[in-house]
Amino acid sequence: MVRGLQMLRKSTLREIKNSLGRYLAILAIVALGVGFFSGIKVTREAMIKTADEYLADHDFFDYKVVSTLGFKEKDVKALAKESYIGSAEGSVSTDVLYSIDGEADRVLMMHSITDRVNELSLKSGRMPKADDECVVDYRLVDDDAVGQKIVISSENEKDTRKMFKYKEYTITGIVISPYYMNFERGSTSLGSGSVAGFAYINRGGFDTDYFTEIFLGLKDHYSIYSDEYNDLVDATEDKLQTAADKRSDLRYQKIIKDAKEKLSDGQKEYDENYDKYLSEKADAEQKLADSYQKIIDGKNTLAQEKKNLDAKEKELKASKAKVEAGLSKVAAQRKDFEANKQYMTPEQIAQTEAKLSATEKQLNGNLSKINAGLSQIDTGRRKIKEAEAEMPANLRKYNEAKAEANEKFAEAKAKLDDAKKDLDKAKREIADIKAPDTYVLDRNTNIGYACFESDSNIVDGIAKVFPIFFFLVAALVCMTTMTRMVDEQRTQIGVLKALGYSNGAVIGKYLFYSGSASFIGCVSGFLFGCWLFPLVIWKAYGMMYDFSSSLYYIINGPLAVTSLLVSLLCSMGATIMSCYAEFREVPAQLIRPKSPKDGKRILLERITFLWKKISFLYKVSFRNIFRYKKRFFMMVLGISGCTALLLTGLGVRDSIKNVVDFQYDEIQVYDYSVVFDKEMGTWRQDHFQKEAADYVDDMIFVHEGTADLLTGKTAKSVNLVASDNEHFDQFVKLHNPDGTKLNYPSAGQAVICRKLADEYDLAVGDKITLRDENMKKMELTVSGVCQNFVYNYVYVSPQTCQDQWGYRPEIKSALVNAKDGMDVYASSSKVLNMDHVATVSVNNDLRVRVSNMMKSLDYVILLVCLSAGALAFIVLYNLTNINITERIREIATIKVLGFYPKETSAYVFRENFFLTGISAVVGLLLGKWLHAFVMEQIKVDMLSFDVRITAVSYVLAVVLTFVFAAVVNLAMYYKLEKISMTESLKSIE
């Protein structure tokens, strides 16, 4: 008995050796099926795990807290004390125009280096030591840039320039930042509107005393994108918002208090300076007035003195005339005295002489006095002239002193006026300081983090369906192979049973054959698939993402066990079923060959006029194809499955790649949208349109907000658009999926996007309920379902909101088309700098983002198509090999009949090509269904994919199927050559 079992094992090993091609085919088909199944299944898990490890190693933030007033160090410390916070660090960041080596100005996002969050990976060079050094984005510059200088452009706003301590920063290293996970660097109001890259400097390189944001890390750690992590964020976000609002309010109160104290001090200083100014001005004016009065008084005094001198001179001259007249009279009297002296007595002479002398003496004395007085008058006049000569100089000095005083006090007054303006400005600024807006932003606000989830979800969506169908095709072929093998060896089974081997021993031989092939194929396929597929897909996504860590491979134990069990079940189960059917017969019946099938006419033979025109060899081929239905269906199912996989892979690419083009070429046809920080009333709208006329061709103002779509027990957040602008359809073209135009909803109606309709089974005429942030509800009738691919939209009229919510929605958005011939980013950058503009969203940004995402998806689809091609090759090879093995005597016979090698191969392979053609047609139908099913499984919240397959993909799927068939036929040609013609003489008996 033992010897018999040993012989049976030798027989089994000999069977493997003799039918090595079939054995390897089973092994390969299982390896490929399991490899694809397991590889795709673990890919997202490996991607997420790798990203999770990378972000954990670099302390990627959990929250970013931003306030319009900024934060101080004490705010950071206060938030760090929250029980659920593990780490907190303040940071400074701003966008700035810069240049390197005299290049044109570009926009750089400058950050301060943080120690405990968003840690940088140094690619080359070193980290900054001095405050005037920096490290730069590796996507912006190459290693040769180390040592060059980044120059802060003078074109920046003054407030921006003031944030930097230096005008130049020397590049010391090239880095990768986890804050910028993918290729996107963001948009800006500066320059062209897009950020070229980032740079990090030491905190001391910024000349600010506040932080622009605070990065926070939670104490608890869960895998990214996991339900546990999302629950943690949901549980802490509101608490953190409350704490952040409190800190912002305290900072607001402190800023107001400090500003008022500073204003009070300034007002006090101003008042003191103003009083001093008034006092000094009054004193100076009094001195000037006194000085001027002194000049006037002196002038009046001189005039009076001059007048007095003139009067005295006149009086003296009159007196002098009288004296001179008296002297003349005395002279005449003396002359008469001398003439009459002889007639006078001595006494008379003496008396007369004495009298005349006394008179003459008196008159001469008076004359002397008069002359002295006249001389004094001349001296007085000379002094008056000298005083009058000094008067212009004194007046000039007065005027100079007055001008100097006026200039001095004018400057003082100007300084006081400037101080008063500053005080008034400070008062207005204090009055304008609003309570801060504080935002608690989680990781999902980071573009790279959010995009990676969407990208990995696409892989996960493919993994939900593709591998299962792939595995089913492989399992089908494996079952077919073993069934055919057991059928071929029924005689050998009969002989073994006749020799006394038990059913279990005989079955064990075939179970070992199929089981060992499946086991080896499953193990090798699982290990190879878990290594290859994640690696290839990760390398593809590596073009978009900056994860510096190597891929974290996943060995999923339950998945391995499942794959092994399914593989063994398919191969060994088929073996058991086939053997069971044979073991119901006695050995004598098994030894005898099965009776050949009765000859029957095929359907084509009944179409006489067509059948007569077909050549004999083609008639034989058609009979062989359609008479052996089991082989026919196995071939069709196997090959059509491969065609379906190829078409589905290509169709996924068609459906995903162009959705953003469809969105922005066929639906939202405007260039960019603008969000304002104030409601845009009619006056503001007119003013804004006039101000933007140089950059904008056309625009409409709409309400764009969010609302909750109530669906049973859950609420779905949707984008709510309300507009009554008659030109709305020039910016957003609402149409059905079939392309027919939709009218904008009237009062009480709504147009919803297709994704919402599909997700919640809504149709035209159904009722929906929307709820605003104040928990007010609005009942609407669906008037249309529009085609839409990006985000979830519900369109209503403003009157509907007025009727049901009691208010018209605020108009704080505009849809804009840039000026013809003007770059969209240049236009959006100009608009972003205008009053009341909060943000600008350029449609092309999302178009570029998805386009880059599709570059990575191309590699995934290529991997799928190559795997499908390999599967098609193995299926065709295996089934063709079985076909040739079953018909070996038939083929040998036609060789004996004189068929040349090419005719022999054409006789066999003609059937393969016919079957491939039929299978390809079936595969296209099956692929269309499979593609639609796969697209239902690929769910990305922000995107709705269009289920469409281009004509090129249909043609390519068929062509590739025929290429694989041709390669198989070429490979099998040499097997036909080796068939000996003596095989035709052998008998099963």
Automatic annotation (TrEMBL):
Q: Which GO terms describe its cellular component?
A: plasma membrane
Classification via InterPro entries: ABC3_permease_C, MacB_PCD, Membrane_comp_ABC_pdt
Keyword Cytoplasm carried by entry? no
Q: Where is the MacB-like periplasmic core domain?
A: 634-824
| Ranges for domain ABC3 transporter permease C-terminal | 465-575, 868-979
Q: Which domain of life is it from?
A: Bacteria
Keywords assigned by UniProt, alphabetized: Cell membrane, Coiled coil, Membrane, Transmembrane, Transmembrane helix
Q: How does it sit in the membrane?
A: Multi-pass membrane protein
Give compartment(s): Cell membrane
Transmembrane portions of the chain: 20-40, 461-482, 510-538, 550-570, 632-652, 859-879, 912-931, 951-974
Protein name (database record): ABC transporter permease
Residues in coiled coil? 267-322, 384-436
